[in-house]
Each structure stands twice: as C-alpha cells, then as structure tokens.
Input
Amino acid sequence: MEIIIQQTIKKMNRGLFIALEGLDKSGKSTQAKLLSQKLNAQKVSFPDRTTQLGVIISDYLRGNKNMSDEVIHLLFSANRWEQHTSIFNQLQNGTNIVSDRYAFSGVAFSAAKGLPIEWCKAPDAGLIQPDITFYLTAPIEELCKRGDYGREIYENSSFQHRVGSFFDILALQENFYKIDALKSIDEIQAEILNHISEKLKNNSLLQQKKLWKQVL
Ligand code: Z5A
Ligand code: MG
Output
C-alpha cells in the first residue's frame, strides 16, 4: 500500500505533511518512526530538543527551570517557527514530512494550564497546516503503565485528563482522525496508512493551507 501512496503523492507536485498528536505515551514517536520509513518521509519532532531553544524547553520539562506559562508557550511555538522554512522548502521539493507532535500539543497543554485557547493558537497562526492529523488516544490509566511514564513535569494523571479534554475539542475543530492507542503497533500503522490512502482519493489535499490565519 505504501508504494501506491507514494506514487499518488508524487502526482501532487509537493510532499504530504502528516502530524501525529495525542496523549502522553500514546505511541506517537513509535508510529512517526515507522511511518517516515514507509513513506520515505523526513521526520520532525516537537519539541525539537536539538536547538538552543529546545535545550531550554528540555530543562523546563525536566523540572530544572521555572518559567511562566506564557513564556514556555511562546518558546514551544518559536521552536516550531525555527523549523518552518525548512519544512516549507522540503514540502515544495516533494519531500513528505511526518511531525511527531505539532502546534496542537502547544494549544492542548497550555489551555490545560488555564490559558485561553485563542491566545494559545495565535503565535502558531501562519505555520503550515498538516494535510492529515492523527490523534492517538486511550484512557490515561492505561497509558500511565507504559515506558518511563512520570519522568517529566506534565506526566501526572489529573493534568493529562485536562490535556485530553482540550485535545478532544481540537479533534472536532480541526478534523483529526482519531485512533485507539490501545491497538497493537502494527494495527495502528495499518490504520494510518489506510486513512492516508483514502484521503488521497479525493482532491481535498491539493491546496497547502496555513494554520489559524483567521485568528489574527
Ligand atoms: N509539549 C507542550 O507542552 N507544548 C508543545 O507545544 C509541545 C509539547 C510540542 C514533551 O514531549 C512534552 O512537551 C509533552 C508535551 C509537551 N508533555 N509531556 N509530558 P515529547 O513528545 O518529547 O514527550 P515524550 O517523552 O516523547 O513522550 P510521548 O511523546 O508522550 O510518548 P509517545 O511518543 O506518544 O509514545 P512512544 O514513545 O512511541 O511509546 C511510549 C511507550 O509505549 C514505549 O515503551 C513504546 O514501546 C510503547 N508503545 C508504543 N505503542 C504501543 C502500542 N500500540 N501498544 C503497546 N505499547 C506501545
Ligand atoms: Mg514521543
């Protein structure tokens, strides 16, 4: 199936931009890695901890740096703008991009702290809008059991519930494709590829769009 997808994307004259969003430990990074291999895509991750801003963000997430909710929100957004031109150019050159988290994480996490949703969206308005966004979700009580849960400051269950409710709101507003994160890794990957293939059958992906231009 991935070969048919790649051939269809080639006819679009630009790359496809896919974002993976969702709750902590829902398997975004696992799926992003597999999908980027299958679609011969460039993988990007947010936060991008490799830049100077990313190092500050990483210190904050590990509890080593205090910052106001507004300042850390703007840093997360700036960390995406750092990659904007590179993502834009790669898409124009026909390279597919798979993004492990994107601006929707920014909104869900900061809104969960009490910042207004429209305020949270504003600094990311004008970034490239993903063509398809997958939303991996499952009961937090199940996801807590996975991997190294609890290492970073946001990984506690009451905060994650609030984050989840804002992801649910965004899922409706932004037309995310929702995936049950408790399925097996292979089942989820197959569902993702299937949905991409279905989306490519209509013309809705022809125009590259920008995020939230209307909020400015
Ligand atoms: N944040 C923010 O506040 N504002 C922003 O703008 C952005 C982010 C962009 C760090 O993100 C934090 O930054 C994050 C949001 C906030 N908050 N927290 N906490 P991060 O992306 O760097 O976080 P992470 O450490 O990579 O965790 P994660 O992304 O939440 O995990 P994941 O990528 O979704 O899951 P995974 O690493 O692929 O898998 C987790 C474990 O589950 C691992 O052991 C896998 O082998 C296992 N796994 C994966 N899939 C499955 C299935 N299907 N079944 C069973 N087990 C599985
Ligand atoms: Mg991850």
Remarks:
- The pocket of magnesium ion (ligand 2) is lined by residues 28-29, 100 (CB under 6 Å).
- The longest helix spans residues 69-92.
